[in-house]
Structure formats: structure tokens, C-alpha cells
């Protein structure tokens, strides 16, 4: 998206072959082989050179790093940045760092901002935030319009992202509710698996609408308990991303659910190495809910089906048989 309007966009890829294909052929053969990337897009396999390129930027929009790695790679990339960043004085020009990953660490139950803080806090002039919202990578790469939200403690981070993306097909909103944005991004993946299972079982569009609506209530319940703002969950990073992921055929989390509803096993579905963050974070979401004494029935049902051998029709029957309650 950035390279559609800027000549200074540079991708770092850890695989030099991938960097060469993106930088020279303007193609991403592994993930989007049929889409021509902007000719202005440059790429490198040299991590230090990519970092130096950002530090050389003359304004905050140029000194912006966007980490497009999954949860599993976030800590490692942040540690690499911490190790490679030259010592900075408090008056050094600000650098803004965003991450796009949506999830919870399955082992430690940490949120992305906590993982980033562990690796990068205390570095002078480095401001961090999360970039989230309804955004299938394929559609972004095709240059189709997209609206996203940046959440960061420093309002300058949202402004830097707005300036960087201005003139592209991406519109950026700002908020300071990092926790609310991260809970929405992580939990919508679990709800997309639930909707996929329902659709794989051919339970109909009424059932899907019910899962989206009650799923949103569940996301908001957990998010508010963890300190997020209730309004955030009806914005782009909550309702917006939930609707996209629960209904859009491009969603990998939804695809996992559909395949399970159709009778395939999780091991079989994930054997090709697909990234489906909802699978990795469902248990952590369940554990956090229990720790806070919250009722998260759809998350419980997804965990039951994914990990505890509960048959999908049995999970549906259990959800329907719950005691009646007010909405
Ligand atoms: N794909 C989408 O449509 C989309 C949209 C918005 C947000 N997200 C979120 O962004 C994150 C990344 O998603 P994705 O689909 O791009 O994932 P992906 O699995 O395609 O990985 C993206 C890139 O990160 C690289 N990578 C993985 N671990 C790394 C590491 N330790 N160091 C360096 N590079 C590493 C991969 O090789 C790949 O090139 C996920 O959390 C996802 O939920 C994805
Ligand atoms: O393909 P998914 O299910 O990981 O969803 C991708 C993005 O998170 C949609 O905003």
C-alpha cells in the first residue's frame, strides 16, 4: 500500500530470494504470485540496511517501521531491532514502529504490545503501536480501498502512519486504545473459526449472524475486563474485522473452521503451514477469560472442537442448550 504513493517504501524479507523477487520482479511468488506489486517498491534481505534506511528518513512518515510478521516471529524481530539500533539520545528524531500481528502468545498469554515492550522499551525516541482492522492482504496488494486503525500511546505514532499512508488507497484512523485494538484483532480470529465451522456444517446464515453478534459481545466482555474501551469493539478493529473475517472467503481462520465443519482434522488442515492465528490463541483467550471470571461460551466451544475432540454438532447443541438469559 505504501509503495503505491511513495518512492521510499522498502521491504525487508529474511529470505534473500523473496527479497530479490519483490525488489527486482515486483512479485511475491510465495504469497501473492499473480499480483503485480508497485514498481516503486524496493526490497532487501539486509536487515541492517533496512533499519539504516528508516533512520535516515527526514520526517516521521519516513521513519516508520511496519512489522508484518506473525505472532510467532514478533519477539525475534523486535530483539533484532534492539540489537541493531545504534545508541539513541533523547533528542534523536522519533522513530515509529507498528505491528500487524493479531493474537495472544499461546505460552505466556502476552499481548503483542507486551512482547514489543519487553524487547524495545527504554529506547529513546522509539514510539510503538498496533496497525489493525479489516484488511485481507490480497485486496490491499490489488490496490483496493481499505480503512485501518493505529493504536499507540504516543499520538505521534498515529499521525506518522496517517502521513505515510496519505495519498494511498489506505485510510488510517487513530486511537490510544492499544489493548482494545489487540483484543479485537486476536478474538475475531477465534470467532471466524466458529463461523467457519457453522458454515461447514451448513447451519445457515441465521446461525452465522448469531455467532457474529454474540461473538462480538464475548470479545467486548474480555476486552473491557482487560482495560479496553467498550467503543473500540464496534469500530474497525472490532466489528469491522470480525465481519470481514467471519464472512470473507479469503480468511484463513474462517477456512480452518469450514474445513473442520466439513469433517477434516486440524493437523491435516494446517499441514501446509498456513498461518491461522485463531488456532494458536484460542486456548490463551479461554485461560484469560477464566482468570477474569468471564463467560466465553463460543471461545470454549471452539477450544472444545479444536483441541478436546468435541464433535462440531455436539458443540452446537451445547451452545443452544445453555440456560436462557437476557441479551
Ligand atoms: N494476511 C493478511 O491478510 C493479514 C491482514 C492483516 C493482519 N494480518 C496479521 O499479520 C500477521 C502476519 O500475517 P501474514 O499473513 O503476513 O503471515 P505470514 O505467515 O504470511 O508471514 C508474513 C511474513 O513473515 C515472515 N516471518 C515469519 N516469521 C518471521 C520471523 N521470525 N522473522 C522474519 N520474518 C518472519 C514470513 O516468512 C512471511 O514472509 C498475522 O498475525 C496476521 O493475523 C494478516
Ligand atoms: O486470513 P485471516 O483469517 O488471518 O484474516 C486476515 C486479516 O486479519 C483480516 O483483517
TrEMBL record:
SUPFAM superfamilies per UniProt: 6-phosphogluconate dehydrogenase C-terminal domain-like (SSF48179), NAD(P)-binding Rossmann-fold domains (SSF51735)
Enzyme Commission number(s) of this protein: 1.1.1.94
Active-site feature positions: 188 (proton acceptor)
Record-listed sn-glycerol 3-phosphate binding positions: 102, 133, 135, 188, 241, 251-253
Ranges for domain Glycerol-3-phosphate dehydrogenase NAD-dependent C-terminal: 177-316
Highest taxon listed in the record's lineage: Bacteria
GO molecular function, one term: glycerol-3-phosphate dehydrogenase [NAD(P)+] activity
Residues binding NADPH: 14, 102, 137, 252, 277
Localisation: Cytoplasm
Keywords of the record: Cytoplasm, Lipid biosynthesis, Lipid metabolism, NAD, NADP, Nucleotide-binding, Oxidoreductase, Phospholipid biosynthesis, Phospholipid metabolism, Signal
Listed pathway(s): Membrane lipid metabolism; glycerophospholipid metabolism
InterPro entries linked: 6-PGluconate_DH-like_C_sf, 6PGD_dom2, G3P_DH_NAD-dep, G3P_DH_NAD-dep_C, G3P_DH_NAD-dep_N, NAD(P)-bd_dom_sf
Coarse class of the protein's main subcellular location: cytoplasm
Domain Glycerol-3-phosphate dehydrogenase NAD-dependent N-terminal: 1-154
Reaction catalysis annotation: sn-glycerol 3-phosphate + NADP(+) = dihydroxyacetone phosphate + NADPH + H(+); sn-glycerol 3-phosphate + NAD(+) = dihydroxyacetone phosphate + NADH + H(+)
Pfam families for this protein: NAD_Gly3P_dh_C, NAD_Gly3P_dh_N
HAMAP family in alphabetical order: NAD_Glyc3P_dehydrog (MF_00394)
Family: Belongs to the NAD-dependent glycerol-3-phosphate dehydrogenase family.
Job description of the protein: Catalyzes the reduction of the glycolytic intermediate dihydroxyacetone phosphate (DHAP) to sn-glycerol 3-phosphate (G3P), the key precursor for phospholipid synthesis.
Protein name: Glycerol-3-phosphate dehydrogenase [NAD(P)+]
Source species: Castellaniella hirudinis
Gene of this entry: gpsA
